[in-house]
Amino acid sequence: MIFNLGSINADYFYSLPHLPGPGETLAATGMKSGLGGKGANQSVAIARAGAEVCHIGAVGNDGQWLVDRMTAAGVDTRHIHLSRHPTAHAIVMIDGQGENQIVIFPGANHDQNRDVVEKALANGQRGDWLLLQNETSLQVEAAMLAAGKGMNVAYSAAPFHADAVSSLLPFLSLLILNEIEARQLSQALGREVLHLPVANVLMTKGAKGADWHDTRLMQTTSVPAFPVTAVDTTGAGDTFTGYAVAGISTGLSPQTALRRAAAAAAISVTRLGTAEAIPTLAEVQAFLD
Ligand code: ADP
């Protein structure tokens, strides 16, 4: 069982002839909306991977449609609380060349409720997992609670902030980062990520694949990415993380879990959108066959 304290965003994509300059008013030529936020994307990926996931989060009274989409994807949404703040959203402006500009309003994501977190984690057992990203409040409180119950805590260190990683490190069994975040972290802490006091480090490397490091045994399992024609890489990391954590939590070896995750992420980059682009386990298995 995986508990995921994570962000829930409404993503609004606007197609524009060019990115607006200061003072400019510009009419969009197209608009699309969808479910997003690293937390929600990862919960959807876990559910599509076939593992049980309980999402802990918050939306405003304009966010029920996002919760409905998560429920439809198979996520347990009973611990998503109604905040008095508006639902978080991302305004993504895209020009004809695919260049973008993004504004994020964190809203309800920063208004997590301690009672809700405690109530959700009261159902957690030793060996269950808590997954976190850096887009909500109460990360350290939740990690402390889960670690105290003997649960495994995984942290996807994005959006990257060295202080956020440092305050979570004592509770982590798994740290997940991409290559850029790994470089930033080792610069900030003055040591290699493989020498951090955390049992496992999962590093994703875009089209170069991903590495699972067991820092106690000093063993690395590397999995290549699948060659595909990428049309939209947003959400590749979240798809990979969700599938990897789902696999590990259900007892798959790092090799098998990461291979599935790489296939799921490869499929997702061939599709537009974020949560909608995440494939089901059946699609992943067909791809691997
Ligand atoms: P993030 O989106 O967090 O920066 P990465 O770019 O490292 O994460 O991508 C995560 C995973 O998604 C990679 O390990 C890889 O398996 C897959 N992936 C990303 N980009 C591509 C691509 N262009 N082709 C195939 N797989 C990709």
Task: Give an overview in words.
The protein has 289 residues and is an alpha/beta fold. The chain has one domain (2-8, 37-87, 109-288): UDP-N-acetylmuramoyl-L-alanine:D-glutamate ligase, CATH 3.40.1190. The chain is built from 9 helices and 13 strands. It has a 9-stranded mixed β-sheet with strand order 5-4-1-8-9-10-11-12-13, with helices on both faces. β8, α4 (139-148) and β9 (152-156) form a beta-alpha-beta unit. α8 (254-269) crosses α9 (281-288). The radius of gyration is 18 Å and the shape is globular. It binds adenosine-5'-diphosphate.
Task: Give the topology.
Layout lengths: L1 E4 L3 E7 L14 E7 L1 H11 L4 E7 L4 H9 L3 E7 L5 E7 L5 E6 L8 H8 L7 E5 L5 H10 L3 E5 L5 H7 L5 E5 H11 L10 E5 L5 E5 L4 E5 L12 H14 L4 H16 L11 H8 L1
The protein binds adenosine-5'-diphosphate.
The site of adenosine-5'-diphosphate has 19 residues, from α7 and α8.
User: What helical percentage do the residues reach?
Assistant: 25-40%
Could you give the count of β-strands?
Answer: 13
CATH architecture: 3-Layer(aba) Sandwich
Q: Ends: how far apart?
A: 27 Å
Radius of gyration: 18 Å
Weakly predicted, low-confidence segments: none
Number of domains: 1
What topology, given as strand order, has the largest sheet?
5-4-1-8-9-10-11-12-13
- What portion of residues belong to β-strands? 25-35%
CATH H level, superfamily name: Ribokinase
CATH topology category name:
UDP-N-acetylmuramoyl-L-alanine:D-glutamate ligase
Largest sheet: 9 strands, mixed
Could you say which small molecules are bound to this protein? adenosine-5'-diphosphate
Class from secondary-structure proportions: alpha/beta
Give the helices and strands as they follow along the chain. Answer: EEEHEHEEEHEHEHEHEEEHHH
In DSSP terms (H or I, runs of 4 or more residues), the helix count works out at 9
